[in-house]
Design brief:
The chain is mainly beta. The protein is 9% helix and 33% strand.
């Protein structure tokens, strides 16, 4: 079975913009891994971000943490997961860029 090799998150704010991940890479090396963080340290955020890559958008919200609540500024957030494929077949990278919806009419701008 393929396993997660590496997770990278860039420019993510959470806990009401009181916590921030500027650019963090979690090297899991395809092994079982324990993340031991204090309350509010980002465990649920990490799970929610990784899951968001693989589920339909209506399933991205957690009970008290709507997915869209993380994206409050104009800077994009990048979420990437690298998978180590079975039988030494290499690696597979999946990711996405997310940012707050920009209202073009409100800013008097034309779409590009």
């Amino acid at each position: 079975m393929s396993k997660i090799n590496r997770i990278r998150i860039m420019n993510l704010n959470y806990n009401g913009n009181t916590m921030r991940i500027d650019d963090e890479t979690f090297d899991l090396n395809g092994e079982s891994t324990l993340l031991s963080l204090r309350n509010g340290g980002g465990k649920t955020v990490l799970v929610q971000m990784v899951m968001s890559l693989f589920v339909h958008k209506k399933y991205r919200d957690f009970t008290d943490r709507p997915f869209r609540s993380y994206f409050t500024g104009n800077q994009p957030t990048f979420i990437m997961t690298e998978w180590k494929l079975d039988e030494g077949q290499g690696y597979f990278l999946v990711g996405m860029m997310v940012r707050k919806c920009q209202n073009l009419e409100e800013n008097n701008q034309e779409p590009l």
